[in-house]
Every structure is written in structure tokens, then in C-alpha cells.
Specification:
The structure is a single chain. The protein has 237 residues and is of the alpha/beta class. The protein has one domain: Rossmann fold, CATH 3.40.50.720. It has a seven-stranded parallel beta sheet, with helices on both faces. Helix 1 links the parallel strand 1 and strand 2. The protein is globular.
Length: 237
């Protein structure tokens, strides 16, 4: 990935930060779009790191702040709003669709012209295990992430062969977003026991898949969903 320009939306924490770290380690010039900078400057090789302060729910990315050629685009923002059907409000559905679908579309539209100038452009979005496996209490997550999986296939068809478009679908990962589900050792053990691999995913597990999709090693992949979920969606034990 050396000398590539990679744009990571939502890259200041969690899985996104791990993606940024991996990109920097592989020599990429990395632009992070997020509401806050966090501790990004603590990363090694931060001289190749640029931060654009943008709230993608209310603001647009200024295209003049981007390099002329963008080789990789990753959209990381997400939410975990769970609840039974009877208590799922339309406002929650709108919030999740606004973040997971509409904001993803807007950001992708902004960077698309830059991606098309690359000789090997790749875009990566995030779904969820809840989009392919029926999980109770996941109405809003399943709907909005299922929409992203459909859009990834649509965009892959529309933009091939110039821009590859793929998706990573993780299960619960050990990040601040999932903290309330992992706040005690008992909760952590119970969650880990759900997975055939008997552990909770780490941010770097997901980032490894993202970096693979950005790299030439996945040059014959587009319109795909990589399910990085400890076997939850495909293995029964």
C-alpha cells in the first residue's frame, strides 16, 4: 500500500483508528475525517497523517482539502441502538439510516471523483453480523446495515472496473462503542462464549480485513461482504 492516499471517515477511535494505524504502518498517506482528533498524533509516522474536523451528520467534507488522487476510502462510523420491536421508535430508525446510509452516501459522493483518478481505487464500508443473521433486538441495526450491503453491490456494479467496492461485517468488537456490553468480566465471558472461536473480536481483527480490501491482494474482489465475526454467522457449535 506504499505511497497510497487513503481517506478514513471515523478514524479517530475504535476500529477506524486501528485501520488508520495499519495504513500508516504500510506507508500510506492517511487522511482522517472525524469530529475530534483524539490521540491520533500519538500514532507512529503521524507526519503522513492529516486530520479534517467534520461531523458527517451535519457537515460535508470539503473536497479542496483532499489530495487530487484518493486510492482508498473507508467509512467507519456506526452505532449500536438495540431494543424490542414494540419500543423501536421511528426516530431511532431515522438516526441509524442517517448515519449508516445517508452519511455514507454523501461522503462517498464527495470523494468519488478523486477515487476515479486512481489506478487501483478501493472503497470499504461496514455492515454487521445482524444484517445476515436474525438477532433479536437489532431492528434498526439490521435494517440500516442491510441497506449498506445492498448499496455495496449496487455501487460495485455501477463503478466497476474503475472503483472496487466491498464491505466488512463484524460482530461485537472490543471498542468503546461496545463498552456497555463488556463492562464486567462476567459479561465478557458470556459474550465470548457465543462465538465458535470463543473470544471477542479486537479492532485489529477487523482492520486486517479492511487493509486487505484496500490492497492489491484483493484486486479481483468487488461487491463482496467479508464476515469477520468469529464464526458467529456461519458456524454452529
Amino acid at each position: 500500500m506504499y505511497a497510497k492516499n487513503i481517506l478514513v471517515v471515523g478514524g479517530s477511535r475504535g476500529i477506524g483508528r486501528s485501520v488508520v494505524e495499519h495504513c500508516l504502518e504500510q506507508g500510506a498517506n492517511t487522511i482522517v475525517v472525524s469530529r475530534t482528533e483524539g490521540d491520533l498524533q500519538a500514532l507512529a509516522d503521524s507526519s503522513r497523517l492529516q486530520h479534517l474536523k467534520v461531523d458527517v451528520l451535519s457537515d460535508s467534507i470539503d473536497p479542496t482539502g483532499l489530495p487530487e488522487v484518493v486510492d482508498g476510502f473507508v467509512f467507519c462510523p456506526g452505532s449500536i441502538q438495540l431494543g424490542p420491536i414494540r419500543a423501536t421508535k421511528s426516530e431511532v430508525m431515522r438516526e441509524d439510516f442517517e448515519l449508516n446510509v445517508v452519511a455514507a452516501l454523501r461522503c462517498f459522493q464527495t470523494v468519488l471523483a478523486n477515487l476515479k483518478k486512481s489506478e487501483s481505487a478501493s472503497a470499504v464500508f461496514f455492515s454487521s453480523v445482524a444484517a445476515c443473521q436474525g438477532l433479536p433486538m437489532h431492528t434498526s441495526v439490521a435494517a440500516s446495515k442491510g441497506a449498506i450491503e445492498s448499496l455495496v453491490r449496487t455501487w460495485a456494479a455501477e463503478l466497476s472496473p474503475k472503483v472496487r467496492v466491498n464491505c466488512v461485517a463484524p460482530a461485537l468488537t472490543d471498542t468503546a462503542l461496545a463498552e456497555r456490553f463488556l463492562s464486567t468480566e462476567e459479561k465478557r465471558q458470556a459474550m465470548a462464549a457465543m462465538y465458535p472461536l470463543q473470544r471477542i473480536g479486537a479492532p485489529q481483527d477487523i482492520a486486517n480485513a479492511v487493509v486487505h480490501l484496500l490492497s492489491p491482494e484483493s484486486s479481483w474482489m468487488t461487491g463482496q461482504v467479508l464476515r469477520v465475526d468469529g464464526g458467529l454467522s456461519s458456524v454452529k457449535k
